[in-house]
């Protein structure tokens, strides 16, 4: 957004976590619309021309759409043929839909994979936008290493990441359920650590050493 028109502020305290957008110049009129195709557009009123001028639109790409690839998957616009891939240790819930380039059903943990005190570990997804936090927990007094150890203790924990990426890059954000709306960026983003079963972990570790 143009900083000369809209000011964005982020609030994170014990009572709430929210974004607020305010018009910098009080006389400026601004409005935001949402249409049936899930597009958001922001406009400002141009008095001299007597019409609304649009300057912001979302989503900007395929992966901007919420849960484009369903749960436990990753959306990457650099994959031009099909932007969806399952996270490590997962497989398509509907192989037929996946083959038809429809990833909306997402992915399930591979059949037979065990992740509850069975030698599981974590695989890093770099440059990521973390998943939806509706099934997440935050602990601002826990280091990232302690976050990892705590996640290993809980069978419901599906992944973790640093909660404070703009500061020390630590604190604990952990997920306890499906990982929904994950994507990666060509630049930026943060590290997301996904819980995987022991077999998947061994295969990925061997491949890294072999390369």
Automatic annotation (TrEMBL):
Annotated keywords: Disulfide bond, EGF-like domain, Signal
Entry keyword annotation includes Translocase: no
SMART domains: PAN_AP (SM00473)
Cleaved signal peptide residues: none
EC number: 2.7.11.1
SUPFAM superfamilies: EGF/Laminin
GO terms for MF: protein serine/threonine kinase activity
The name this protein goes by in its record: non-specific serine/threonine protein kinase
Origin species: Vitis vinifera (Grape)
């Amino acid at each position: 957004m143009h900083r000369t028109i809209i000011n964005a502020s982020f609030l994170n305290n014990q009572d709430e976590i929210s974004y607020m957008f305010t018009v910098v110049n009080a006389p400026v009129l601004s409005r935001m619309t949402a249409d049936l195709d899930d597009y958001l557009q922001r406009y400002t009123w141009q008095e001299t021309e007597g019409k609304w001028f649009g300057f912001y639109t979302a989503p900007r790409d395929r992966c901007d759409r919420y849960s484009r690839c369903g749960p436990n998957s990753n959306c990457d616009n650099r994959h031009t043929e099909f932007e969806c891939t399952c996270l490590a240790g997962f497989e398509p819930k509907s192989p037929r839909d996946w083959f038809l380039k429809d990833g909306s059903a997402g992915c399930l943990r591979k059949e037979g994979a065990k992740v509850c005190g069975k030698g599981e570990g974590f695989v890093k997804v770099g440059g990521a936008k973390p998943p939806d936090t509706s099934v997440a927990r935050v602990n601002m007094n826990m280091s990232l290493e302690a976050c990892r150890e705590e996640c290993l203790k809980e069978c419901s924990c599906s992944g973790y990441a640093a909660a404070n990426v703009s500061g020390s890059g630590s604190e604990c954000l952990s997920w306890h359920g499906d990982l929904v709306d994950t994507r990666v960026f060509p630049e930026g983003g943060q590290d997301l650590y996904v819980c995987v079963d022991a077999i998947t972990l061994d295969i990925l570790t061997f491949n890294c050493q072999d390369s």
